[in-house]
Amino acid sequence: MSSENVLEKLNSKYEETINIAKKGTHCGMCRFDFLGTGLCPSGKKHGFLAYWPQGRMQIFKNLMSGKVKPTKKLIEIVNSCSLCGICDKQCNFATQLRPEKVAKALKEYVEEIDKEELQNIPEDKNVIELRKIVGEEWATNDSIITSSYISSIIAPDSKFNFYIVMPKDAEELSKVIKYANSNNLPYLPRSGGTLLSMAAPTVLSNAFGLEKGIVIDLLRMNQLEIHPESQTATVGAGITAFELQKEAHKHKLRANVAEAGAHVCSNIASTGILSTWGNKYGWAADNFIDVETVDDEGNISYHSDLEIENPYTTEYGFTNISLVPPLIVTKVTTRLNPVYDDEEAVFVPFENIQDAIDLSFKIARRGMGFSNVILSRKYLAEFISPTPKIAEDFEYILEKYLKLNYAVDIICNSDEKKIIEGMVDYTIDKSTLKSLILGCPKLSTLKDSEFMKILSEEKDPLKAIFAGPMKEHFEKALDATPENISKIYDEDLQDFFKKAYSKPEMTNIIWLHEHRIFPSRLMRQRMFLPMGGVIWTEYEKNLLDWINMFIEVGDKNKLIHALGFISPFDQGRFACLEYDFYYDHNDPDAKKRVDNAIIESQEKSLQIDGILSALNFYFKGLYRKEHVLFPIAKAISDDDQELFRELLKNIIGEV
Amino acid sequence: MAKFLSDEWLEQCKKYMYEKLDPEADLKNVTTSLLGVVEHIPPDDSIMNFYLNFDNGKLIDFVVNKGPTYEKEAKFVITGSYGTFKSVLKGEMNLTIALLKNRIKLKGSKVKALKLMKPLDGVILSLKEVTDEFEE
What we know:
A: Uridine Diphospho-n-acetylenolpyruvylglucosamine Reductase, domain 2; Uridine Diphospho-n-acetylenolpyruvylglucosamine Reductase, domain 3; Vanillyl-alcohol Oxidase, Chain A, domain 3; seven-stranded antiparallel β-sheet; globular; B: Nonspecific Lipid-transfer Protein, Chain A
């Protein structure tokens, strides 16, 4: 039988599992324990992505598409999985996928395959030398293992001329880099891989990914120490935001971190930790006391070293684009912030964005609140809803009946809460928020109900439902219990999710803001590409133009698109905006449309005064924000526009 | 065709630039100088450099030397590994990407250097056309 026929047969046999594997987006939620399930034993032991659920899904996809041939290592990978089911629980919470079905299919595939067909990948000179540095088991050139890194650091159309190396510390990394340099091997570090996986299906793939050489997986650098006396933490490059936050929380401390699966060190180097807590806790170099870094010559240094050149400054201007971090951050001493007993969440719903902006910025400029963000209804719906269908219906209800398009979402102390409540007509209180989280499946069933129709006829439906006579009926109608929300899951997972949603933190708004386990739902079964950047709030009048530009670009390219969030920082001097284009990462036509949207929106962002676009602040997180953001960015000239177009063409090629 | 950084390579590059590049159309009448430092050259991990000087789009100086420095000061100094230059000359990676990926380090203003990329396209093209052999 020809290899094409074999593939055809396999694709027919494993259709369901191939579909699951294809929907994987490398969100990384299977690599840390956010539900108290423990960790995938195989991944924890072996480290390489191939041994984690997300890697198995990628391998299966690669095998079934014929992109890679099975190697002897595949047997070990398959046998290392005990089918314990942890991945199904974690993945189902975030994406509703069942990666264990893929693991089972992979086992079945290996059992049936003629073992003579398994390739033996001989170790070459580079692997031998790299193993001398990191140890026998932590360097490989096996094509099955390297193929698991496709779409999260390796471009989907690359050849398999890669090595994967997992150094345990800065010293080993230094040696790896020196070896790479003297042997002319390109390299790139990888931590969580989410940013790279967002870029992978798009025109940004080659710009952000590695074309050949050494993938340096930093997962083994897992030092984590909390120092309560100095309110700091020492965090290795293998530690995720969630893991740091969880430990900090035990000491009534809080880190400023990105979404749960983001690795703290790499997030500092990439986007400087842009979070909703930025107005109080800062951005970029504000976040750390010291960093241990390795440069591209393999030199290890610390920002606290007296002899180093000023590490906090970078050249200003729209052409200052970086596609890699200036240094590899292997360890950071990060600031932690006290958690107060009287912290409260305040949610203020709005129909109109300008009203939401006015309130959020006013609060920021007065220095109130720990966390301050305007969430779009899309984000609210995606975060809270456990399935894509519920999210869709939830969003429909928010828009059509409740007229809730934006929410100003503040975490503050009790005194500030009183002030904010005095600034607005009404807020969504804690009990209603809890009801929305646990009752969203029920809410989605009310889509065409009489109750919603009556509600939408109210003069101010938001007030009626959140602060008026209908509040009690609404909460009752949602029937919000852990048991009810668990019913939307597959039968075998319902008991688990009933217990999971019974935990107080799952409906604790402050905990959810800190630990950020919901944002991964934006990547469930399809990809999104976050655009946007930073705007000087002095140019607030341009903010709506900026958003409208994204709307036009999204419409023109026939994409699902929506504002994500706007969050002020630095006492309201700046605001970060994220606007998202959503698309099916397996659909080549959708990829083309998102490519066009990236280029068009990037170019048009530069034509607006007071804006620094996302591409201009990537990999600037080690610098002082003042050096990145000052002076105020002005709309670029036609000549510069031409230059930028040329630059973009060089970065991403012709589209 | 010649081996990167060899005497023959230098001569062929010069000839190509004199004969095939138009100062206005290809080199945009650029006036600048560039020192390219090539590190980690196999087999003995050595360093070489090449110096290019243009006046109003005309090549007035092009030399290859051993070591990391040259007696004349260049407006821009770019430093990269032999592997990176090889990738650029083989067309696997463009110079802009190499710069933005830190594969090529720049001494001088990155903003100004990027403005030079268009005129330098012709130079890179010449080097690409002439180079067909590399140290392994």
